[in-house]
Amino acid sequence: MSDRDDFKFDTENDIRERNNKRRKRKKEEEKTIKQTIIEYVVTIAVVLGIGLFVMNFILVNAEIPSGSMENTIMPGERIFGNRLAYNFKDPERYDIIIFKYPDDESQLFIKRIIGLPGETVIIADGKVYAVPAGTDTGDETDDAMLIENPLMHEGTKILDDSYIPEPMSTDDTTKTDMVFRVPEDSYFVLGDNRNHSRDSRYWNNKFVSRDQIVGEAGFRYWPITKIGIIGYDGEDK
Question: DSSP string of 23-66?
Answer without folding.
Answer: HHHHHHHHHHHHHHHHHHHHHHHHHHHHHHHHHHHTEEEEE--S
